[in-house]
Amino acid sequence: MVRFRRSCRCSACATGRTMRIPVMSVPLMCLGFASGTVLADRVAIDLRGGGRIVGELLSEKADALFLDLGHDVIRLPKDQILKRSAGTDAPAQTTEPRGVAEDTIGGFYRTGGVEGQSVKQLVDQFGEGVISIDTPSGKGSGFILNEDGHAITNHHVIAGETRISATLYIKNANGGLQRVRVEDVEILAMNPLMDLALIRLPKRSDVTYKPCHLSVDELSAGDGVFAIGNPLGLERSVSQGIVSTRNRNFDGLVYIQTDAAINPGNSGGPLFNLKGEVVGVTNMKATAGDNLGFAIPTRYVKDFLRNRDAFGYDKTNPNAGYRYLDAPRRLKPRDASGSTGKPAAR
């Protein structure tokens, strides 16, 4: 948010672990399939971590499958497989995001991304899900979670505010972007310790909300990332970098540290990996140095969303977003002589 230079004071705790699939970009002749059954069927694999993989089944062994994704060959341990479909149940490879609803209550958010696309293509595909948040005291960023208009931003972006609006950037027929301002944004849940807030944009007949997808895989140092937001009010700015470290500790919480440019106004916006998945929510930077930005990992976001009823916003609570102004002081009445009733100075 433009007015704030937030220093971390988070002390919440969340747990979550996902599995990472090792990828091998090597010639097929080197894989040594002789000890397993060699196949050539197309399969769709649903993972226990929430992702989905579609490809040609090259070989099956007792403990693993080998899949050809077209651009990579992977070894997939069987203990990571939730469901396996074959034949007509396995759709062809596509560049559309393969989102899988993780929250079974209405599919509150989705996970999954796409492979083999440039940052430019990913920005074009997922950029409409990034929004600008406006309050009387400043500007921040956020991103859409689902078609019902639920969105994530930072707590400090909307703290102390109730008059909240959002600006969407929607593609028009000419290929450009059109600003659409949405008023009366509703606060649903707030967690000041995690610095997260859940808001809802009202439904409109002329607007289709396009969600961003949360990540499944864990990050590693050196992974490429990019951020979209409104630094210093400069709308739709894209910055690119890498993960400097995935577990920088501040006050008992770990944050993603990145050298991608993060500035006031980026707060609440998404940090994407190179599959177009949201891996973090940008929320602060080191003001005394350069290329030291930080983001809240999505495992904390998922925990916040799963337990959103515990953080529900109550407008009747005096500790909620309303700000109460002191009543003006009443002046003491003067008598006919002009005296205020105070003893004369000696």
Descriptive account of the structure:
- The protein is mainly beta.
- It folds into two domains: 67 residues, SH3 type barrels (Roll), CATH 2.30.30.100; 227 residues, Thrombin, subunit H (Beta Barrel).
- A seven-stranded antiparallel beta sheet has the order 13-12-9-10-11-15-14. The chain has a six-stranded antiparallel beta sheet with strand order 1-5-4-3-2-6, with no helix packed on it. The protein has a six-stranded antiparallel barrel with strand order 17-18-19-22-21-20.
- Strand 17 and strand 18 form a beta hairpin.
- The relative contact order is 0.16.
Lateral strand order in the biggest sheet:
13-12-9-10-11-15-14
Tally of domains = 2
Strand content: 35-45%
Rough outline: elongated
Sequence of secondary-structure elements: EEEEEEEEHEEEHEEEEEEEEEEEH
Cα-based radius of gyration, to the nearest Å: 25 Å
Distance between the termini: 54 Å
The beta-strand count equals 22
Question: Which blocks of ≥5 consecutive residues have pLDDT under 50?
Answer: 1-5, 7-36, 87-95, 100-106
Calculate the mean pLDDT score and round it: 79
**Helix-residue proportion:** under 10%
CATH class category name of the largest domain: Mainly Beta
The CATH architecture designation of the largest domain is Beta Barrel
Structural class: mainly beta
Secondary-structure blueprint:
Layout: E1 23-24, E2 37-47, E3 52-60, E4 64-68, E5 73-77, E6 81-86, E7 100-101, E8 110-111, H1 119-126, E9 130-135, E10 138-144, E11 150-153, H2 155-158, E12 165-171, E13 177-182, E14 186-191, E15 196-200, E16 213-214, E17 224-229, E18 237-250, E19 253-258, E20 270-273, E21 277-285, E22 293-297, H3 298-306
Parallel strand pairs: 16-21
Antiparallel strand pairs: 1-5, 2-3, 2-6, 3-4, 4-5, 7-8, 9-10, 9-12, 10-11, 11-15, 12-13, 14-15, 17-18, 17-20, 18-19, 19-22, 20-21, 21-22
